[in-house]
Amino acid sequence: MERILIAMSGGVDSSVAALLLKQQGYTVAGAYMKNWINDEEQIRGDCPWRRDIEDARAVAEFLGIEFRVVNLMDAYRERIVDYLLEGYTRGTTPNPDVMCNREIKFGAFLDYALREGFDAVATGHYARKDEKKPGELTLRRGRDRNKDQSYFLAMIRPEQLRRAVFPVGELKKNEVRKLAADHGLPNAGKKDSQGICFIGNIRMRDFLAHYIPDKPGEIVDTNGRVLGRHRGLHLYTLGQRRGIGVPSNTDNAFYVVAGKDIPRNRLIIAFDRIDSPGLYAREVIVRDLSFLRKTIDETRRLEACPRYLDPAQPATFTRLDDGRARILFDRPQRALAPGQIVALYEGETLLGGGVYETIEPLEPLHGRASVPDSTNPLEAQRPLF
Questions:
Q1: Domain count, the chain
Q2: Would residue 100 show up in a list of annotated catalytic residues for this protein?
Q3: Is 335:279 a contact under the CB 8 Å cutoff?
Q4: Which residue segment(s) compose the domain that 176 sits in?
Q5: pLDDT tens-digit profile of 274-288?
Q6: Are residues 83 and 154 in the same domain?
Q7: Which of 63, 106, 206, 235 has the greatest number of C-beta atoms within 10 Å?
Q8: CATH number, domain at 20?
């Protein structure tokens, strides 16, 4: 029987996953991944890692399984935090949760498990792994479409999927809660966490403010008219409506972030409508492609999920000669940003994913074009006024 090391966060999903594995007869051990400690007073937020460890330990003791704390802080800093800070510094919008799965849970943590003699690692992800034929693995959406987390697994590698187990993928969230309560798990009533992957319940803005110094500049509309001041481009996301600091001048239209003029350190805003320059796009270029099964080399129809919890959109995928790909959505998509992740599907099956490199908006920001910088995909994203 396989030995499985399950990543226990202290939450209900991973606790029920451990319960199910034990009921299925596996030799199970639990582990809390200690990846980050917010001990700097400057960072405001709730990072209840000590409570999470105690909750995970209590569940493990209740289930009668071994429990350990695995220190992966160095790997997390190098592979996730540095990636996060570098991306925001360059003006892109990184996704730490997706990269945490590839680099930490099914990267450093899986490596640790294999060294310790385990055969696989398990998590509480709502996703389903199938093996209809020996060696032919597929990853499908979780049965609970409202909790489906396959998007966050879009960048993992085939060899990582082979060693991954997702015990709650066939369940709905209410069923997981009921199992926890029916079996008396100590954390059955614990609320789900909403923080950055393993950093805690802290606003991204507060986290970034501690590591990236403010660089104030002008807030302008698409005609170049100055409307206000911003604290730093890294603190704003394309499509953002709240917290811009510029009041909308009508009851029916709201300003949103439409672009970033990095050379001039300007934040560009526009009214939130489909004809606003820079805000909607159908065509994107994607880099760092990752596939769970066969690499897609031909032009084909598929579904692309623009961001987490967005419905998958019909699109045409075309592989380019340089290893990148062009994705043409059938319908315009709002506020796509370089650095974000697109997940590729065929029906329920996750094919893989990639990173947005450039966005071609329906209505470009007009006027003087910026000089493209290959080290900064956002500068080549669109013309500037």
A1: 3
A2: yes
A3: yes
A4: 3-205
A5: 888 889 999 999 999
A6: yes
A7: 106
A8: 3.40.50.620
305 catalytic per annotation: no
pLDDT, tens only, 96-140: 999 999 999 999 999 999 999 999 999 999 999 998 777 789 999
Measured between alpha carbons, how far is residue 80 from residues 18, 282, 355 in Å?
26, 29, 15
Whole-Å CA distances, 337 to 89, 105, 276: 14, 25, 16
Task: Give the model's pLDDT for residue 210.
Answer: 82
Torsion over CA: 283, 300, 312, 193 (sign):
negative
Tokens representing residue 384 in the block: 């500037």
* CATH number of the domain within which 301 lies: 2.40.30.10
In-domain check, residue 376: no
Catalytic residue selected from 28, 98, 100, 110:
100
Q: What is the pLDDT of residue 150?
A: 97
- Residue 235 carries which DSSP code? G
Give me the amino acid identity at 133.
K
CATH code at 228?
2.30.30.280
Residue 303 CA to residue 331 CA, distance in Å, equals 12
Name the helix (H) or strand (E) containing 206. Answer: helix 204-211
42 lies in the same domain as 118: yes
379 within some domain: no
For residue 19, pLDDT beyond 80: yes
This prediction has a pTM of 0.89
Catalytic residue from among 113, 197, 220, 302: 197
Claim to verify: residue 292 and residue 350 sit in the same structural domain: yes
E-state strands within 97-135: 120-122, 127-133
Residue 380 lies in a domain: no
Which of these, 175, 324, 153, 332, lies nearest to 239 by C-alpha position?
332
Q: What is the DSSP string of 22-87?
A: HHTT-EEEEEEEE------TTS-SB--HHHHHHHHHHHHHHHT-EEEEEE-HHHHIIIIIHHHHHH
Tens digits of residue pLDDT in 57-88 = 999 999 999 999 999 999 999 999 999 999 99
Distance separating alpha carbons of residues 351 and 234, to the nearest angstrom:
31
Distance of CA 284 to the CA centre of its chain: 18
* Pair (92, 14) in one structural domain: yes
